[in-house]
Design goal:
Polyamine Oxidase, Chain A, domain 2, 42% helix, 550 residues, seven-stranded mixed sheet, single chain, five-stranded parallel sheet, alpha/beta, disordered N terminus, FAD/NAD(P)-binding domain, 4 domains, binds flavin-adenine dinucleotide
């Protein structure tokens, strides 16, 4: 009897403990324990922050080494999201290249639509005659190669040579180490000869050696450089080839909109025990004796950790949150690189809600991305002017993307017009000090692009428009906190990319900044790489890419 009673007592205790643990967990989920020292703090809950934190949670016991994301907005996702206006669901992003290996590693389940036919179409406008040439780019490296060789027989050999060479160079990326030792660096000379020889070139320098002369073919490959916000004569060859090959491998869009990607990340993160602090701004990164100690929130509260990953604009993080002097004391070159790092351009996005009469499918809008451009040197000239602070789009010189998310997500028909490169200019100043003028300028600029889309891509577009939602560089600056309103992180100029980029491991022990360059793929990869550094190569084996034996 006594034995039985002692046994019940023990069971009761276990039961009470379980309830307490459960209760404690509930309390912990809704009320982050800010006094507790965290294993990792991640600043920013965009796709880089989410991937950084999920990776940590996936490879640690979060009860012992808790991970906390601190995000200033009321939701995660940053630039990767969807939003509704008057019943229309608009996406901010358009295409995800092949990230499936990374999703699998992290256990992210997301329903994606694969663009099986054409993932991109280019509408090349002759500014003089106003004639339009439509070029359709199919998915799959071999399909793409065969199509181009067939359509441009005079350049078939050169196209084959270029695509084979660039594919081989792309695959060498799988053999690169993120932080190579001296021996590994030597091995790279043998294992990655193409990268060693061509890796520091601009895309144009690299491309020109293959002797492709047909202007349409040149246009096609330049479009891949433009995806990173830079013209081919400035974008790093490796960046363009990476973007080109990963979208050729497959391009996708989430069937429920880009917000679903964020939701699935957040769901997985919580499953793994990750903690999330929303509507909270980080003001300072705490550093003592060259080591990171945690962060200070707006309002003064401090949260401690030996590891911090910052995913916000690296210039802001290093200059304003750490202080460049502290960095300079430890590593002068790194401090200099912070000053010199060039950020990518901004964008203007015009989201249009359309009536049910419009038939977007019959216009072939069910592809990933439509580029409408005057081609030739247009993008390069627009970029030159952007760098001088001007927006030089005219009826004879333009370049823009037109995307139709609703043919994937369902719901009311809509399209988005994306314009890059755009600088911050006076957008922010007007928004803050002269809202009337800001709205007038938004209207004027968006009408200019709508007219062009109506003229060259979607006839009678204007009569179908029911609502219009315009995002300017001021919108992007506000949401991301980037003073230059940059939308692709660091610009992949050949001297701002690869080995010449701002390093992910900062001179402050325990402080990392994974910002890579351009897009969801780069953001996810950078986040994996910094976790690999923290875990001393236990995730990627020190490799730059996930599947080194591919
Ligand atoms: C209009 C547009 C279209 C795009 N289209 C594509 C596309 O089709 N395909 C693609 O691959 N990429 C696309 N991109 C690029 C891609 O969206 C970005 O490269 C990527 O989302 C950047 O993610 P991030 O987490 O690095 O930064 P962000 O998304 O900027 O996230 C940073 C987060 O940090 C938070 N934050 C900032 N300061 C603080 C602070 N002090 N304290 C706490 N939190 C802070 C911000 O609120 C934000 O949530 C597009 C970008 C834009 C803007």
């Amino acid at each position: 009897m006594g034995g039985f009673s002692a046994h019940t007592h023990k069971l009761e205790n276990i039961f009470i403990q379980l309830i307490l643990q459960r209760y404690y967990k509930v309390v912990k989920m809704s009320q982050i324990d800010k006094k507790e020292k965290k294993g990792l703090i991640v600043i920013g809950g965009g796709i880089t922050g989410l991937t950084s934190a999920v990776t940590w949670a996936r490879f640690h016991d979060t009860k012992k080494d808790p991970v906390l994301i601190i995000e200033k907005e009321p939701k995660t996702g940053g630039f990767v999201t969807s939003y509704t206006r008057e019943g229309y669901l608009f996406d901010t992003s358009q295409i995800i290249p092949n990230c499936n290996d990374m999703f699998e590693l992290l256990g992210i389940k997301i329903d994606l639509k694969r663009f099986k036919g054409y993932y991109t179409r280019i509408f090349l406008v002759n500014p003089e005659t106003e004639e339009v040439t439509k070029i359709e780019l199919p998915s799959g490296v071999e399909v793409f190669k065969k199509k181009l060789m067939k359509e441009y027989p005079e350049n078939a050999k050169e196209i084959e040579k270029f695509l084979d060479h660039s594919r081989a160079m792309f695959l060498e990326l799988f053999k690169l180490k993120t932080e190579p030792s001296f021996i590994e660096l030597l091995k790279t000379i043998v294992s990655c000869p193409k990268i060693v020889k061509h890796g520091s070139k601009t895309f144009k320098n690299y491309f020109d050696q293959f002797g492709i002369t047909n202007p349409e073919v040149v246009e096609i490959f330049d479009a891949f450089a433009a995806f990173s916000g830079l013209p081919g004569d400035r974008a790093a060859a490796l960046m363009t080839l990476g973007a080109m090959n990963s979208v050729l491998d497959n391009a996708y869009r989430p069937t429920k909109g880009f917000i679903e990607l964020t939701k699935q990340f957040e769901k997985r993160y919580k499953e793994l025990g990750g903690e999330l602090l929303l509507k909270t701004k980080v003001e300072k990164i705490l550093v003592e004796n060259g080591e990171v100690k945690g962060v200070q929130l707006e309002g003064g509260e401090k949260i401690y950790s030996d590891f911090v990953i910052t995913t916000i604009d690296p210039k802001v993080a290093m200059k304003e949150m750490v202080g460049l002097d502290k960095i300079r004391e430890l590593d002068e070159k790194f401090a200099e690189k912070v000053e010199q790092a060039k950020m990518s351009p901004s964008s203007l996005n015009v989201a249009l809600g359309l009536d049910d009469e419009i038939d977007l499918a019959s216009l072939g809008m069910d592809c990933g991305y439509n580029v409408v451009t005057t081609g030739g040197e247009s993008f390069s000239r627009l970029f030159d002017e952007y760098e001088k602070g001007n927006m030089a789009f005219t009826e004879k010189q333009f370049h823009m993307g037109v995307i139709c998310p609703s043919l994937t997500t369902g719901g009311k028909p809509n399209i988005t017009i994306r314009v890059v490169p755009v600088g911050l200019g006076d957008w922010m100043e007007l928004r803050e000090n002269n809202l009337e003028e800001y709205n007038r300028k938004k209207e004027e600029v968006s009408n200019f692009f709508i007219d062009l889309v109506e003229k060259y891509l979607i006839p009678d577009l204007k009569k179908h428009i029911l609502i219009k939602d315009i995002s300017t560089p001021a919108t992007y600056a506000r949401y991301s906190g980037s003073p230059t309103a940059s939308i692709y992180g660091m610009a992949p100029f050949s001297d701002n990319f690869g080995r010449t980029r701002l390093k992910m491991r900062t001179p402050i022990k325990g402080l990392f900044q994974p910002l890579f360059s351009h897009g969801i793929f780069g953001c996810m990869l950078g986040a994996l790489q910094v976790n690999d550094m923290i875990l001393e190569r236990k995730i990627l084996g020190g490799n730059a890419r996930l599947k080194p034996d591919k």
